[in-house]
Design brief:
The chain has 830 residues and is α+β, with helices and mostly antiparallel strands. It has 4 domains: 127 residues, PH-domain like (Roll); 74 residues, Orthogonal Bundle (Recoverin, domain 1), CATH 1.10.238.10; 328 residues, Phosphatidylinositol (PI) phosphodiesterase (TIM Barrel); 140 residues, C2 domain (Immunoglobulin-like), CATH 2.60.40.150. The protein is built from 27 helices and 30 strands. Strand 6 and strand 7 form a beta hairpin. Helix 7 crosses helix 8, helix 11 crosses helix 13 and helix 15 runs parallel beside helix 16. The radius of gyration is 30 Å and the shape is globular. The N terminus and C terminus are likely disordered.
């Protein structure tokens, strides 16, 4: 476009200068008149701010929360104004935050708009640079410094430092704080800390004892690791193999900040800390950020990331339908989106949640958005799950838009059902969009432009949900007797003789767009689809699914081997809450539909599952779900299989914040944290354990506790780390990170809490095989390390969590003594 050509000519420096100087723009809020505000990029280039605002310091958008910047009048807010109200060259929208809000701006001229759009894109690209960890840390320090500087004089007084330490959950004696404050206060302006001095002060309080002990255990009590020491650590603890000298040199060059150490090619405590806090020391396998599974198997061998009511931004009764939600879920890795179509005014089909007060959006706008974003984050096929409530003329319009807008992305393969023996693979269907919907019967006159389809032939949500209401007419006892006594589970709800059969007219033009994904109703889990049915897709709601899970889980697994199945939330979830997806994955259900607009535990499980294959939207199902007989509800679903043992040592926490909903905010009490680890997978694998509580320390609590889990089917298990603040009357949630078991890395790892800069827990991970009930020996860390680790529990009870240079030397001396005692004991036992 003209915009993008021009924007390439604007230099990064010019953009930054203009943005930091600031610009007056109109902020649209959907009212008749916009609000004129002064927008500027802050001095650290970490967020956009505006004034005046009643939110004061909170009137900002951080750069790392921005999903996208769109030029022109693309957002829903702009559509509320007359077409000629604003020049599109003056307009742009910033989409940001977990719930994808939009900030819609109108500048005073086109050049200004282009400068902001280009500058924001430069900043967003910078976030993904290799040095982003160091930059993120620096940005965090800058933001922390700015927020602590209450009087805005560019320095921190001792009083402001005390307030900041309380906010950061640091519990130190005032005398100790004053001593470190004076040590860091080196310039002429005595009695306050500038930014550089604050960085020195922060380094003093955040030096890691746990990492220091690991380092000296591998360096023969030297205060640095040479390349040989580093190699031993990586091989023994991190289980790395085939290390070459160049790789080790690269680690030192990348992470060691001290020029003297760089010259000697050794890693000091700061370099070692930087390395273990980088993605290389993260619990998540970095190789799983890319596609790492076989993508050449038939489509029905995969779990597929699926969205429910994609268009909704909130609940099912009153919330906004938004075109941007399609961009959001597709960029979040979702590969199956829902399009709920109804007749609209002026012959234009619309999308909204039928029979409710949710707002309406145009079908055409949605298809254009899908066309733009379908393959920006994943090349693998997108399935459009069309819920069709339109009359034939508007169905023809839908088909026309699908062909015109999607063009060669639309999969129009000529499929001969009798010749095809299996579905194509995600690899073959790369870049293709499949339409899932109703199809005209094969025996209909080929020249007929439309025909009747009964609800016998469909698997649509709305009809099933109406059937839920019919179900209420059966008494509870009759219903139970029927379900329990039947030998082959027939879905009574759909085949009741009392149920009215419904038909609808279907356009040939729309029917012909459905190829591999024809919607069909489920009649009988056991017998349906024993012929050729792989190209059929059925949809069942959670209420019916839960009955099947209880009564016929093995048959459900076999059904899922024959055809695709989509599970969606009950219509009683008017708040758009999410169900637990795990039981449906356990029976091999391919498309478990989630309300992506609703954050929380269930969506976090979904995100963790699909993250383990590059977040491409497809995860291979285990072999036992694709071919063999398998019943996930049995006590021993995989007879003769070895269990896997996960040994987790929860060592320490770093910079854990106060709970989000803390009554007194940053001024609230210093937290008393504990860690809870949960295994979520097969019923027999479910387990939950927790550490003890550490009182009054959220900044650097030490737990040093080992948790052991035995897991039968690790390939579908998720490991959830949760940090809680203990309270006399309960507990408050601090944060979480959920990781697929297969994506966990062994050794010493940081578990960063989702969405929290700098907050993490430090763990040691060991994974072993065990046969039957025999527990194999736990993989122990280095013997020297065990001797040294004994010191940590002592230190945990000391009030000084700081290691200055003298403190290091004292610790080093006592460590040697401890080691000698350990070695003497070893020789005596021999």
């Amino acid at each position: 476009t003209h915009h993008s050509k021009v924007s390439r000519n604007i230099s990064k420096e010019k953009c930054m200068c203009t943005m930091q100087t600031g610009t007056q723009m109109t902020k649209l809020k959907g009212k008749k008149k916009g609000l004129v505000r002064f927008f500027y990029l802050d001095e650290h280039k970490s967020c956009i701010r505006w004034r005046p605002s009643r939110k004061h310091d909170k009137a900002k958008i951080t750069i790392d929360s921005i999903h996208e910047v769109c030029e022109g009048k693309k957002s829903e807010i702009f559509r509320r104004y007359a077409d000629n109200r604003f020049d599109p060259n003056y307009c742009f929208s910033i989409y940001y935050g977990e719930r994808v809000k939009s900030l819609d701006l109108v500048s005073t001229n086109a050049e200004e708009a282009r400068t902001w759009i280009t500058g924001l894109k430069y900043l967003m690209a910078g976030i993904s640079d290799e040095d982003s960890l160091a930059r993120r840390h620096l940005t965090w320090l800058q933001q922390t410094f700015s927020e602590a500087d209450k009087n805005g004089d560019g320095t921190l007084s001792i009083g402001e430092v005390h307030q900041l330490l309380h906010k950061l959950n640091v519990n130190l004696p005032k005398q100790k704080v004053r001593q470190m404050f004076q040590e860091a206060d080196t310039d002429d302006n005595q009695g306050s800390l500038g930014f550089e001095e604050f960085c020195s002060f922060y380094k003093m309080i955040s030096t890691r004892r746990d990492l220091y002990l690991i380092m000296i255990s591998y360096s023969n009590q030297k205060e640095v690791l040479d390349l040989h020491d580093l190699a031993r650590f990586l091989e023994n603890e991190q289980k790395m193999r085939g290390l070459v000298k160049e790789y080790l040199v690269d680690i030192v060059a990348k992470f060691e900040p001290c020029p003297e150490n760089l010259q000697r090619m050794v890693l000091g405590i700061d370099g070692f800390t930087n390395y273990l806090r980088s993605p290389a020391g993260d619990i998540f396998n970095p190789e799983h950020n890319q596609v790492n599974q076989d993508m050449t198997q038939p489509l029905n061998n995969y779990f597929i990331a699926t969205s429910h009511n994609t268009y909704l931004s909130g609940d099912q009764l009153l919330s906004q339908s938004r075109v941007e939600m399609y961009a959001y879920v597709l960029q979040a890795g979702c590969r199956c989106v829902e399009v709920d179509c109804w007749d609209g005014p002026d012959g234009e089909p619309i999308i909204h949640h039928g029979y409710t007060l949710t707002s309406k959006i145009l079908f055409k706008d949605v298809i254009e958005t899908i066309n733009k974003y379908a393959f920006t984050k994943s090349p693998y096929p997108v399935i459009l799950s069309i819920e069709n409530h339109c009359t034939v003329p508007q169905q023809k319009k839908m088909a026309e838009y699908l062909r015109e807008v999607l063009q060669d992305k639309l999969d129009l393969s000529s499929v001969n059902v009798n010749e095809c023996k299996k579905l194509p693979s995600p690899e073959i269907l790369k870049g293709k969009i499949l339409v899932k919907g109703k199809k005209l019967p094969a025996n209909l006159d080929p020249d007929a432009e439309e025909g009747d389809v009964s609800d016998e032939d469909t698997g649509d949500e709305e009809e099933e949900e109406e059937d839920d209401d019919d179900d209420d007419e059966i008494t509870q006892s009759d219903h139970t007797i029927f379900l329990v006594s039947t030998v082959t589970l027939v879905l009574f709800v759909y085949n009741s003789p009392y149920r009215k059969r419904k038909t609808m007219r279907l356009s040939r033009a729309l029917s012909d767009l459905v190829k591999y994904t024809k919607s069909v109703r489920v009649h009988d889990i056991e017998t349906q689809g024993k012929g050729i049915s792989f190209w059929q897709v059925s949809s069942l709601n959670e209420t019916v699914m839960n009955q099947i899970l209880q009564l016929k889980p093995g048959e459900l697994v076999r059904f899922n081997q024959r055809q695709l199945l989509r599970v969606y939330p009950s219509n009683y979830r008017v708040d758009s809450s999410n169900f637990n997806p795990q039981p449906y994955w356990n029976t091999g259900c391919h498309m478990v539909a989630m309300n992506y607009q609703t954050e929380g535990r269930m969506l976090e499980l979904n995100q963790a599952k699909f993250s383990s294959n590059g977040n491409c939207g497809y995860i291979l199902r285990p072999k036992c779900m694709c071919k063999a007989a398998f019943n996930p509800m049995l006590e021993d679903p995989l007879p003769g299989h070895r269990k896997t043992q996960l040994v987790l040592k929860i060592i320490s926490g770093q910079q854990l914040p106060k709970p989000k909903d803390s009554m007194f905010g940053d001024r609230g009490e210093i937290i008393d944290p504990f860690v809870e680890v949960e295994i979520i997978g097969l019923n027999v694998d479910y387990s939950k354990q927790q550490t003890r509580v550490v009182d009054d320390n959220g900044f650097n609590p030490m737990w040093e506790e080992t948790l052991v889990f035995n897991i039968l089917m690790p390939q579908i298990a998720l490991v959830r780390f949760q940090v809680w603040d203990h309270d006399p009357i309960g507990r408050d949630f601090i944060g979480q990170r959920t990781v697929a078991f297969r994506s966990m890395m062994p050794g010493y790892r940081h578990v960063y809490l989702e969405g929290m800069a700098e907050s993490s827990i430090f763990v040691h991970v060991a994974i072993n095989d065990i046969t039957g009930k025999q527990i194999a020996l736990i993989l122990r860390p280095h013997p020297r390390l065990l001797a040294l680790m004994g010191l940590m529990k002592l230190m945990n009870h000391q009030s000084q969590p700081v290691l200055g240079r003298r403190r290091f030397r004292r610790l080093n001396h006592s460590s040697l003594k401890n080691l000698r005692n350990y070695q003497q004991n070893q020789s005596q036992t021999k």
